[in-house]
Every structure is written in structure tokens, then in C-alpha cells.
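[Discussion] Sanity-checking designs against the backbone

I'm trying to build intuition for which residues belong where. Below is a C-alpha cell string of 221 positions. I'd appreciate it if someone posts a full sequence so I can compare it with mine line by line.
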């Protein structure tokens, strides 16, 4: 398969046996992560961000939280696409976050592991936008944490995230969608947009073709 080394790294974290193994791999991978993702045409973030601009209030006072921020690729794409506001970041892996900090894109950063049953290290009702790229997948963000992301949003704030559309991610997503549906039924959030996008442009092992993904946009009520 083309781009074998890049896919091996991506698959090493997605299919890791444990969170500890995944975290160790991110530490080893951090220095070449951006180049490897560019190599396989990882356009899921750009496609999410293009859509995001239809829903965010793009002003200097807009405050965004980038969850599972990695090396800051998401913040970089937002800024490069003309985002005028400020961005805070939460990221578990210190090596990845260190690279993100050096890009000088964030107002505040939190090196923090998000769990299913604990609040985020930020004040509730603070953010106009919560965004998550490439972290709603197996072995990454626990699905229940989506409730705490909604808490971090101001009323009328928007949550924008993407997720790969593969068979291997379907079980994980079922639980995620369950939490989202519960919050919709409880009138805490409303779905504004669900759109299929290209996630990786190069053929992947999961589909033998470019990998599809979804972008979701929810508003907090
Ligand atoms: C595939 S990378 C995506 C990074 C960035 N959002 C991007 O699009 O390039 C996933 C990131 O999520 C972080 N992560 C995974 N699980 C996490 C958790 N439970 N809490 C905080 N960060 C987590 C990883 O350390 C990694 O940097």
C-alpha cells in the first residue's frame, strides 16, 4: 500500500490495544505527525473547518476550545482560513501539545486526559465554539465526555466535530450518537448540520479508497 509508513502510524494509534500504548506512540510520533498526515491527504480537518465558518461568529471576541488539539493542526487551519477569535486547547499528550504551543496559536493550553465521567479543566458556559478534529474514534475520546463539552459551551454556542466513517468506528459512534440523541431529546442541544466529507484523500486499508467521514454541527440551547 502507498504511504505505508504514514498509514502504519495512523493505524498504530487508532487500533492500539490500550490508551497507554496509544499515548506512548503519540510521544514517539509527535515530531513527524503533521508531515505524515499531509502525506495521506488528511483533509478531514479542512473540510470540517470550511463548514464551520457558516455557523461561527467570526469576530475577535469569539472564544473557541480545541479539544484533543494534538500538534495544533486544527487551530492552524482555522487561523489560516481567516478565524479572527481566540483559541484554547486541551490535549493529553505532552509531546504533541509542546509542538502545538510552539506554533503560537493558543491563548491557554491544558495538558489533560479527558475521561468519560469528569468535567473538562475549563469553566462551564465559557466558549462560543467547541471543536474536535480526528479524536472521536476508538481508543481516543471516551464518548461520554461529549456532555462536558456541551457544558463548556455558552448558551447558543456551537459544537463542531468530525469523525471517520468506517465499519471499525461504527460501534464507537453508536455510543457517541446515543449521548448526543439524549441531549437532543432533553432539549440541551439541536443538530444544525450533518455532512459527509472526505476524511483521508489517499486510499486507506479500511475501504481501499479514500476514507469518508462526517462533520456534525450542534447548537447548545
Ligand atoms: C488523531 S490526533 C488529532 C489531533 C488534532 N485534533 C488534529 O486534527 O490533528 C488525536 C489527539 O487526541 C488526543 N487524545 C486522545 N485521547 C484523549 C483524551 N482522552 N484526552 C485528551 N486528549 C486525547 C491524542 O493525544 C492526540 O493528540
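Best answer:
Here's mine. Compare freely.
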Amino acid at each position: 500500500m502507498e504511504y505505508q509508513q504514514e498509514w502504519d502510524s495512523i493505524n498504530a494509534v487508532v487500533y492500539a490495544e490500550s490508551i497507554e500504548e496509544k499515548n506512548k506512540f503519540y510521544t514517539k510520533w509527535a515530531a513527524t505527525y503533521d508531515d505524515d498526515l499531509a502525506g495521506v491527504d488528511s483533509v478531514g480537518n479542512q473540510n470540517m473547518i470550511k463548514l464551520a465558518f457558516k455557523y461561527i461568529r467570526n469576530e475577535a471576541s469569539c472564544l473557541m476550545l480545541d479539544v484533543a488539539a494534538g500538534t495544533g493542526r486544527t487551530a492552524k487551519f482555522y487561523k489560516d482560513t481567516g478565524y479572527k477569535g481566540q483559541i484554547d486547547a486541551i490535549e493529553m499528550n505532552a509531546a504533541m501539545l509542546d509542538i502545538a504551543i510552539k506554533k503560537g496559536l493558543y491563548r491557554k493550553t491544558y495538558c489533560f486526559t479527558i475521561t468519560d465521567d469528569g468535567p473538562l479543566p475549563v469553566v462551564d458556559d465559557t466558549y462560543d465554539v467547541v471543536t474536535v478534529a480526528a479524536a472521536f474514534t476508538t481508543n481516543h475520546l471516551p464518548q461520554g465526555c461529549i456532555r462536558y463539552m456541551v457544558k463548556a459551551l455558552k448558551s447558543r454556542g456551537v459544537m463542531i466535530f468530525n469523525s471517520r466513517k468506517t465499519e471499525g468506528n461504527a460501534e464507537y459512534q453508536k455510543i457517541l450518537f446515543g449521548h448526543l440523541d439524549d441531549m437532543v431529546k432533553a432539549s440541551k442541544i439541536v443538530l444544525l448540520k450533518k455532512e459527509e466529507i472526505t476524511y483521508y484523500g489517499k486510499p486507506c486499508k479500511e475501504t481501499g479508497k479514500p476514507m469518508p467521514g462526517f462533520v456534525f454541527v450542534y447548537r447548545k440551547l
